[in-house]
Every structure is written in C-alpha cells, then in structure tokens.
Specification:
Elements (H helix, E strand, L loop, with lengths): L18 E5 L6 H14 L4 E5 L8 E3 L5 E3 L1 E2 L6 H6 L7 E4 L7 H14 L2 E6 L10 H9 L2 E4 L14 E6 L2 E3 L15 E6 L1 H6 L12
Parallel strand pairs: 1-7, 1-8, 2-5, 2-6, 6-7
Antiparallel strand pairs: 3-4, 9-10, 9-11
Helix pairs in contact: 3-4
This protein binds zinc ion.
Length: 216
Amino acid sequence: MTESSALSAVPSSARDAVLKFYFGPMDCGKSTLALQMNYNHGRQGRRGLVLTKHDRSGGPKVTSRIGLGLEAIEVDDSLDLVRLVTGLHDRVDYLICDEACFYTVEQIEQLADLVDEHGVDVYAFGLASDFRSVMFPAAQRLFELADEVCRLQVEVLCWCGRPGQLNARVVGGSMVRTGEQVVIGDTDASPVRYQVLCRRHHRAGLLGEGSSHWPA
Ligand SMILES: [Zn+2]
C-alpha cells in the first residue's frame, strides 16, 4: 500500500535538496563546522565539493582557527558553479561553500539552481554583515533564498562579555566605518585587523580596554 495524503499529491519518497546558510561573526566556528559537516557527509558515502573564497590561509583551502584544514576549490568571480558541478565526471551530492558572503550574487543564484535543478544539497557558511554592519550582497541573497538560515553563536564574546555579533574593522588601533567592503586583515602583511563586538559596542565604536595593543 502506498502512502498518500489528501493534502498533498507529492510522492512521499521525494526529497528536495536543500540550501542552508549558517552565519555568524568571525571566530564563531563557521569553518570548523563546515569541515565537520564535510566529514560527516563523506562518512555516509556522499560525494561533495568544498569551496571557499579568501580563506585566512590565503590559499585554496578551508582552514579553521583551531587548526583543521582541507584543500578546497577557490571561487573567483568568474567561476560558474553550475558548470563546475555539471562538468565533473562524478556525481556531486552536496557542496560546502565556506566564506559564501564573498561570492557574487549571481553565484548564489547558481547555488539555488544546483539545489532545484540538479538535486545538490548546498551548505553555505559566512558572515552576514561587513565591518559597517551592512549585509554583504551574497549574504542577503542567501537570506532571501535559503530553505534554512542558522545563526551560529559559539561563545565568541565582545570584550564586555556580551555575545559577539558584528565585526569591527580596526586600522591603527581605531575602528573605521568607511572603506572597501572586502579587505583582508589579520595577516602579517595587513595593517587591518578585525574585532568581534556586541551590537552596543559596535554602534558606539568602543573597542574596549587594551585593544590598542596588537595581538601577539
Ligand atoms: Zn560589548
């Protein structure tokens, strides 16, 4: 006997692929979760690709602050993600898209196409907003299109002890509110660093005691 419902003509065996967006400030464990998710799906025999853009390592890798790392495909602005997946010999069950906030809006549309037209699960990870607390265009599109959006809050705290929500850009010890949306920081070569603040202190521009010292 086949299951049926008066409310739905959709076969119960149908399972749509999903587009999920996990967002949070720096250091909240996004890349760690991305790598964990890839590991879990791989163990179930599913085949996936791991993509990233502007990873902290500076290379085509997903690395997490706690020291995990994995080779990944670097997404540049001209990469067509549908072509990337459909051009492969092997079936692709899922994509892990780290730093998805830095993708183009068109690439987010391509991710939705992969979900709807090709049955690929897409797990996207990234920041929601930039150093001004303004949403990244790609993150905004993910909020609009995703089946599920999850805020990650892995004990990243503002200096005051409140949950860290927003990234401040710090140049020469001061918080700045103007400039390019994407500037790579927190590297030896960069004068820019980022600091996670609560909303209150992001809006007030207060970096807290001792923040004029550079981290060792
Ligand atoms: Zn605070």
